[in-house]
Every structure is written in C-alpha cells, then in structure tokens.
Amino acid sequence: MEHLEIHPPPKPVHPSAEVMVRTRDLYKSFGDNHVLQGFNLDLFKGENLVVLGKSGSGKSVLIKCLVGLLSPDKGLVEVFGQEIPKLNQDDLDHIRVKIGFLFQSSALYDSMTVRENLEFPLRRHWISKTRDEVDELVIEALDNVGLKHAVDLMPSELSGGMRKRIGLARTLILKPDIILYDEPTTGLDPITGREISRLIVDIQHKYNTSSIIITHDMGCARIVANRIMVLVNGICYAVGSFEELKNSDDPNIKPFFD
Ligand SMILES: Nc1ncnc2c1ncn2[C@@H]1O[C@H](COP(=O)(O)OP(=O)(O)OP(=O)(O)O)[C@@H](O)[C@H]1O
Ligand SMILES: [Mg+2]
Question: 245: which of 48, 145, 215, 240 fits an S-S bond (Cβ 3.0–4.6 Å)?
C-alpha cells in the first residue's frame, strides 16, 4: 500500500529508462461521449505495461490514438519521440512497421492460409525479401507461438486460442520494438489464456519488446505486468505493481481484484 499512488505522474521502472510511448493530457470524445479526458501514460523500454479499465472505458480508443487510427482532440501522443498526429502517411507507415498491434479480434484474413496471413505484413510494408527469407521468417514467427505445423491451415480450421497465437505470430514477423495487445486473452478458457499470457512474457524477454497490454483479465495482468495503470473516467487513475494495487481499498480499484 505504501507505494501506491493515486493520480500520480507516471514514474519510470528504472529512472534512466528510455520512454517509448508517451501521452500527455490526451482528450478524445465522440459527440457527448467524453472518453479520454486528460490521459497521461509513459511506456518505458522493455516493460510490460497493463492498462486496466471497465468495458467501454476507452482502452481500445487509447491504443488506436497511439497508432494513429484515431486522432486525438487534444494532447500529446509520442511514439519513439515522434508526434503521431503530426506525421504524414509515409512517416506513419514507417513507424507502424515498428509497432505490432494485436487487435481485439484476431483479424485474420479468412480467405488466406496461415502462411499468407503471415506474409501479408511484409508485402503491405513493401519489405523486399527472397522467397527463402520469407519462408524462414514465417516459420520462425510460427515457432515462437508453438504453431509451426499450422502453416498451411485456413483460419476456419483454427481454434480461438490458435487464432490469437497466429495473430501474435503475424505481429512478430516484423520484429516490432513495441507491441500493443488489445484483450489478448478475452474469449479464451483460463488455461489457454494463461498460455497466451506466458507467451507475452516470453516475447518480452526474447525480443526486449516494450508492450502495452489492454485487459480486464486479472490472471493475465498478474502474469504479464511490470506495472499496471487503471483507466477510470478517462484518466490514469492509479499506477502500481499488481501487488500494490491488489491491496488497495479504493472503490475504483478494488472491484478489479475481487
Ligand atoms: N469510432 C467510434 N465512434 C464513436 N464512438 C466510439 C468509437 N470508438 C469507440 N467509441 C466509444 O468510445 C467508448 C470507449 O470505447 P472502447 O472501444 O475504447 O472501450 P474499451 O475500454 O476498449 O471496452 P471493451 O473492454 O469492451 O473493449 C465507447 O463508449 C464507444 O462506444
Ligand atoms: Mg476494447
């Protein structure tokens, strides 16, 4: 409890750690629906930062602002030190190569095989590779998620857990520095959810990625989080480790842990 701060300024994991993603005073509304109301966030190099929030609190809106899929009404959004809303399409594409985004739905292309789904990001970003190099990248990415044998399957032949893994493999193929996970374990049974959570930690360690993990699965948060932020009423309401927040009596925090 003594380390828990309510409404704190974000604090580094290591004081010298490099900031990969920063938002300051971020506002986003849809008509009268004021979703983000001054959200401040720092993602430090190498950390897994969990953002907890109720359904509809604006978690997906937040990460869409980070990758330029939504433009904020006001405030700063910086990734790798560059202001996302100010970038032209070319520069944005350039930055997006380095940011993996695992969508809330796995968003695989149903008419393409697993292999074609994984090759797609390479083609979309005009990354030129020989056939052998592409094959090698596809197999490496699948191996990372334990699904090498699924390379020639169609998405319809995959279970929900496998789809999440393939989605993750497709994210990994560009070797991103930052990965944004939107509800990586939602819709999965607890055991598969735990496997995906462990995979997120493995990837963090193997590739030294910095990640934001949006979730309301506390099992996932406990496994993956170096730090947890609680999004309430459009702001970062609290920051702490799992243990610190777990012991909070605050009515906005406690329900997540009950
Ligand atoms: N493109 C949009 N146009 C209008 N309203 C939107 C848009 N995107 C999101 N919203 C609204 O913003 C609010 C936050 O949505 P968001 O998808 O970020 O919630 P969430 O925290 O991700 O919820 P969940 O846990 O259910 O995924 C909701 O009220 C939603 O209706
Ligand atoms: Mg969402």
Answer: 240
Helix (H, G, I), strand (E, B) or coil at 66: helix
Q: Is residue 48 a contact partner of residue 225, using CB atoms and an 8 Å limit?
A: yes
Tens digit of each residue's pLDDT (9 = 90 or more) over 108-142: 899 999 999 999 888 877 677 888 989 999 999 99
Q: Which of 39-48, 55-64, 115-124, 206-215 comes out lowest in average pLDDT?
A: 115-124
Give 184 Cα–ligand 2 centroid separation in angstroms.
Answer: 11
What residues have a C-beta under 5 A from ligand 2, the ion? 60
- What's the chain's length in residues? 258
Does the pTM of the predicted model rise above 0.85?
A: yes
- Whole-angstrom distance, CA of residue 151 vs CA of residue 141: 10
| CA 37 to ligand 2 center in whole angstroms | 17
Burial 233-251 (b: 16+ CB within 10 A, else e): ebbbbbbbebebbbebeee
The number of C-alpha atoms within 13 Å of 180 and in the hemisphere containing its C-beta is 24
List pocket residues of ligand 1, CB cut-off 6 Å: 30, 33, 35, 53, 55-61, 104
> Per the structure block, which two tokens stand in for 145?
């998620």
CA distance 215 to 238: 15
Q: Return all residues near 192 (Cβ < 8 A) that are at least 6 apart.
A: 160, 161, 185
- For ligand 1, atom 4, the nearest C-alpha belongs to 30
* 17-53 pLDDT, tens digit each: 899 999 999 999 999 999 999 999 999 999 999 999 9
Determine the 3-state secondary structure of 163 from DSSP.
helix
Q: What is the mean pLDDT of residues 87-99?
A: 91
For residue 106, report the phi and psi dihedrals to the nearest 5 degrees: -65, -20
